Amino acid sequence: MQYVSTRGGVPAASYSEIVLQGLARDGGLFVPKVYPQVSKETLKNWRGLSYAQLATAVTSLFAKDMQRSDIARLCETTYTPEVYCHGREGTDFKKIAPVVWLENDFGILELSNGPTLAFKDMAMQYLGSLFEFVLARKETRLNILGATSGDTGSAAEYAMKGREGIQVFMLSPAGRMSKFQKAQMYSLQDKNIFNIAVQGSFDDAQDIVKAVSGDLTFKTEHHIGAVNSINWARIAAQVIYYFSAWLQATESEDEEVTFSVPSGNFGDVLAGWIAKQMGLPVARLIVATNENDVLYEFFRSGRYRIRDSAHTFVTSSPSMDISKASNFERYIYDITGRNPERVVELWTELAQKKEFLLNAEEWAAVKASGFTASRSTHADRLACIKRVWDQYGFLVDPHTADGINAAVKERIPGVKTICLETALPAKFAATIKEAVGFEPPVPAGYEDLLEKPQKVLEMPADAQLVKNFLAEHDVGK
Ligand SMILES: Cc1ncc(COP(=O)(O)O)c(C=O)c1O
Ligand SMILES: N[C@@H](CCOP(=O)(O)O)C(=O)O
């Protein structure tokens, strides 16, 4: 299996090569040259596999240059009930990512039982082991430069802390995350972890990551790698739980399932799209946004109109406060018939005019792709958290609430619908209290998190300043 860039400007590369590169050197994103296919027969054979076995089977389709036994070892040590045991009392942690049915045909896919209480742990714990494995084989090191709106940062830091040959430089938007999210990251005192709060939004931080990665001399000299979903390994690891959820939801290989996905950087729902491209029977993918509704607007109109940080609102589902969705480029690559010249044309237009409009043929392809979208406001979010608590005794976080809200509006009657849970309520105590009148339970081990000393450096959103800091702290030079 070879990988190509959405912008067509780099030679095809293998899984192990692109894992360390993150962003392609032409500024595009790596995608498989051809999506691997999973037949109905294979789906049938996958019934009854443990999560780790399923992860091995799916990852083996993407990582053709790795031995299956190595993949199996990484998956068996990553996807254990000991790692994914931080969720609600009574959860079946052995399933790793269980579907909890609130109604016969409506379920929540629990993805937030990992060490940082968000779905990012599902891929990031695996990535930690994978990086160490690949780095050891190549006898090299990695300076990870990442951007977070609240959850990728802590997931990456927990997965990479203390690992040989890896340093993490994580950019977070100053003042735009919950208290719990800040404390999770900034309380880490490990020598290989550097937290930088940039004065701007997540998009500003992500732009810096792309600008630094775009300086190819600097990238090579300092071995810059990525943990954001621009790194294909993240997406591939997220594809696994769509298969797992579908296997839990169905008894026949012909049954389709709808997924509703709280969305920001478009990585999570893109993984669902990839699963569908591979042959998973998916009826509909619902993109749930908050008040930062760039993706909602696109799926309603065909116009992709990004916004600057002054027009990116601080909301009560803060991890989705994103107005430039990186992974959207991978979806548009498919929509254009996998045409890199057209992707370059559209992204050049986007850089100049801050928007593009698809042509009629492309818009028809979007309409046929099975996506719909819905947006939620603060009031919708609060009402949804309260209703789900009152009706089912199940407490959801504000992002998952946006997903449920969207599912209610956009689901197909009679088709089983699963909403992806993207974080635990404990991370967003103030909003939960506003919705239901009490604070969410804090999982064991996190009771004193907010009291721990914090270490973070604040700086203007300036790529050169970040480069200077990274160069100064690159121990491997
Ligand atoms: C809690 C939570 N929900 C939803 C999202 C949106 O996911 P994606 O960026 O993959 O669209 C994020 C961030 O990515 C998140 O942290
Ligand atoms: N919501 C994310 C934003 C980054 O997303 P990623 O999937 O590209 O890493 C966060 O919590 O940081």
UniProtKB/TrEMBL annotation:
<dbReference type="InterPro" id="IPR004450">
    <property type="entry name" value="Thr_synthase-like"/>
</dbReference>
<dbReference type="InterPro" id="IPR000634">
    <property type="entry name" value="Ser/Thr_deHydtase_PyrdxlP-BS"/>
</dbReference>
<dbReference type="InterPro" id="IPR001926">
    <property type="entry name" value="TrpB-like_PALP"/>
</dbReference>
<protein>
    <recommendedName>
        <fullName>Threonine synthase</fullName>
        <ecNumber>4.2.3.1</ecNumber>
    </recommendedName>
</protein>
<feature type="modified residue" description="N6-(pyridoxal phosphate)lysine">
    <location>
        <position position="120"/>
    </location>
</feature>
<dbReference type="GO" id="GO:0009088">
    <property type="term" value="P:threonine biosynthetic process"/>
</dbReference>
<keyword id="KW-0456">Lyase</keyword>
<dbReference type="InterPro" id="IPR036052">
    <property type="entry name" value="TrpB-like_PALP_sf"/>
</dbReference>
<feature type="domain" description="Threonine synthase N-terminal">
    <location>
        <begin position="2"/>
        <end position="79"/>
    </location>
</feature>
<dbReference type="Pfam" id="PF24857">
    <property type="entry name" value="THR4_C"/>
</dbReference>
<feature type="domain" description="Tryptophan synthase beta chain-like PALP">
    <location>
        <begin position="110"/>
        <end position="368"/>
    </location>
</feature>
<dbReference type="InterPro" id="IPR051166">
    <property type="entry name" value="Threonine_Synthase"/>
</dbReference>
<comment type="similarity">
    <text>Belongs to the threonine synthase family.</text>
</comment>
<keyword id="KW-0028">Amino-acid biosynthesis</keyword>
<dbReference type="InterPro" id="IPR037158">
    <property type="entry name" value="Thr_synth_N_sf"/>
</dbReference>
<dbReference type="Pfam" id="PF14821">
    <property type="entry name" value="Thr_synth_N"/>
</dbReference>
<dbReference type="InterPro" id="IPR029144">
    <property type="entry name" value="Thr_synth_N"/>
</dbReference>
<keyword id="KW-0791">Threonine biosynthesis</keyword>
<dbReference type="GO" id="GO:0030170">
    <property type="term" value="F:pyridoxal phosphate binding"/>
</dbReference>
<dbReference type="Pfam" id="PF00291">
    <property type="entry name" value="PALP"/>
</dbReference>
<keyword id="KW-0663">Pyridoxal phosphate</keyword>
<comment type="pathway">
    <text>Amino-acid biosynthesis; L-threonine biosynthesis; L-threonine from L-aspartate: step 5/5.</text>
</comment>
<dbReference type="GO" id="GO:0004795">
    <property type="term" value="F:threonine synthase activity"/>
</dbReference>
